[in-house]
């Protein structure tokens, strides 16, 4: 597997890239090659007096390269220019990445729906599964909040094809997972149709699959606002990562907030592993 790790060479990015436990978790799920990429903003150019951003970023990536190579990965570095989320998506397709990783300082103390703009835009547009890795917010030398990326997974499902695709990620996440909580929220907006099968039974079927892989699993069925209830379960079970699926969105809808997956990405304390629709071939 190939992972694309985005960095702006900040302390928050360094926390993700240089954490040995995080790197070990990526290795356990099958990542063998890491593409380190940093994006130089389009409005910064080589002609600016006294500034050589691209060379400085290459040197920064070289420092990270040695750490990751020592952890047993093959590493390629990329310095690109443009709008960060667009260039990261484009590079993910070019190198055929299996997932992308981006660090996020998490919740703002003033506005709990705000995360970094790059992480937010990637969550809306990502072409490959995206791991939003939470990093301490109010710290000069921050560390990741949940080192064991996939040890305890909270999987949220509405039994849609998007959720089923996210559940399929357990085929590789299971190699680093020990515990899982499966949750379904019956929204007041639901029409009451569950395909003739009780939600608890449907969760139990998925739980049986995980138990057969040696993952200790519990299930929860709740009623209420999906995002609020998922976040309530997260607060109760403190997972390493919340696993959710996302839908393909139009350009106009990408500008809007409000989907359950976006609420979870913006407000969860845990890491979030977001699985998008398959990319076009």
Order of helices and strands: EHHEHEHEHEEHHEHEHEHE
Q: Please tally the β strands and state the result.
A: 10
**Secondary-structure class:** alpha/beta
Strand arrangement in the largest pleated sheet: 3-2-1-4-5-10-9-6-7-8
Arithmetic mean of pLDDT? 83
- Output the radius of gyration: 19 Å
What separation lies between the terminal Cα atoms?
18 Å
Family: Belongs to the universal stress protein A family.
Domain UspA: 3-132, 150-276
Protein name: Universal stress protein
Pfam family, one: Usp
Describe the structure.
The protein has ten helices and ten strands. With 281 residues, the chain is α/β, with parallel strands linked by helices. The protein folds into two domains: 2-134, 3-Layer(aba) Sandwich (Rossmann fold), CATH 3.40.50.620; 152-275, HUPs (Rossmann fold), CATH 3.40.50. Strands 3-2-1-4-5-10-9-6-7-8 form a ten-stranded mixed sheet, sandwiched between helices. Helix 8 links the parallel strand 7 and strand 8 (216-223). Helix 4 (84-94) crosses helix 5 (117-125). The longest helix has 18 residues, at 53-70. It is globular. Residues 3-132, 150-276 form the UspA domain.
Q: Would you spell out the secondary-structure blueprint of this structure?
A:
Layout: E1 2-6, H1 11-17, H2 20-28, E2 33-40, H3 53-70, E3 74-81, H4 84-94, E4 99-104, H5 117-125, E5 130-134, E6 152-156, H6 161-167, H7 170-173, E7 179-186, H8 199-212, E8 216-223, H9 226-237, E9 241-245, H10 260-267, E10 271-275
Parallel strand pairs: 1-2, 1-4, 2-3, 4-5, 6-7, 6-9, 7-8, 9-10
Antiparallel strand pairs: 5-10
Helix pairs in contact: 4-5, 9-10
InterPro entries: Rossmann-like_a/b/a_fold, Universal_stress_UspA, UspA
Protein name: Universal stress protein
Pfam family, one: Usp
